[in-house]
Amino acid sequence: MDGANSSIVSEFVFLGLSNIWGVQLLLFLFSSVFYMASLMGNLLIVFSVTADSKLHSPMYFLLANLSFLDLGGGSVAAPKMIYDLFRKHKAISFGGCITQIFFIHAIGGTEMVLLTAMAFDRYVAICKPLHYLTIMRPQICILILAVAWILGVIHSVAQLAFVVDLPFCGPNILDSFYCDLPQLIRLACTETDKLEFMVTANSGLISVISFFILIISYIFILVTVRRHSAGGISKAISTLSAHVTVVVLFFGPLIFFYIWPFPSSHLDKFLAIFDAILTPFLNPVIYTFRNKEMKAAMRKLCYHLVSYRKVS
C-alpha cells in the first residue's frame, strides 16, 4: 500500500464517555468546574511567580513552567471532551487527531524532564545548600527548560513519524474521547504488532524508568539528610511530599496506559479523565497548599487585581 495516499479515512469518531443524559450532565459539570479551576490555578501560579520578585528563584521558576505545561496539557483534550459530551457525532479530523497526539506527547515528554529537574533542584537545595545558587544559576535553569522542550518534541515526533504514513481505510471508531497512539495504531489496515511494541517501549518504558529514577532520587535525598542530621529528616519529608505526590499522579496513569497488558476501556477512560482534568488541577493545589511564600504571593496578586478593577 502507498502509505498516506492509500488512506480513505478523513476523520475519526469518538465513542465518548457515556450516552446517558444524566451521566453526561454530571460529567459536563464535573469537567467544566475542574477544567476552569485548573486554568485559574495554574495561571495564578505563573503570574504570581512572574510578578513577585521574592519568587524569582530556581524552584519557583521550574514550578511556574510546570504550571505552564499543565495549562497546555489540560487544554489538549479537555475542551473538546466537554464540547462533545452532548453531541451525537463526536468526530475529529485526521489532522486534528495527529495534532492532539503531538501535543499530548510533546508536553508529556517535556514534563517528565522538568519533574526530573525539579527533583535535582530539591537534591541540591537539601543536600548542598551552600552551593545551591551556584549550581542552580539562571543560565542553568534556562538550559534545563530548553533541553526539556527539545527532548519532549523529539519524543513526540519520533513516534508520529511512524504513524502519519499508516494507511487508514476503516473502521474509524475510537473508544475514547481523545486521540492517542495505541488506539489509533490498531485502526490501521496493515500489520502493526512491531509498531505497537515500539510505542510501548518508547512511552511505557520511558515512563517507568523516569518514575523509578525520581523515586530513587527522593530516597537518596532522605538517606543523605538522615546521615547528616536526624532532625532534618522531617523537614525533608515535608519538602519532598508534594513532589512525590505530583510524580505519582503524573506517572501512574501513563504507566497503566502503555504497560498494563490487559486493557479495559472503562478503566482507561476513568484514568484518562483523571489525567486530563484532575491532575492539572491538583498540581497547583499540592504545590501551594503548604507553601507560605506561594500563598502570600497569590494573595498579593489577587489583591492588586481587585484593587485595579475597583480603580478602573
Structure description:
It contains 10 helices and 3 strands, in the order E-H-H-E-H-H-H-E-H-H-H-H-H. Helices cover 75% and strands 3% of the residues. The N terminus is likely disordered. The chain has a 3-stranded mixed beta sheet. The longest helix is centred in the C-terminal third of the chain and has 36 residues. The radius of gyration is 21 Å and the shape is globular. With 312 residues, the protein is mainly alpha-helical.
Number of strands: 3
Distance between the termini: 64 Å
> Which class best fits the helix and strand makeup?
mainly alpha
Mean pLDDT score: 83
**Unreliable runs:** 1-5
Specify the number of helices.
10
Shape: globular
Radius of gyration: 21 Å
Largest sheet: 3 strands, mixed
Helix-strand sequence: EHHEHHHEHHHHH
Percentage of residues assigned to helices: over 70%
User: Strand-residue fraction?
Assistant: under 5%
Q: What is the topology, as strand order, of the major beta sheet? A: 2-1-3
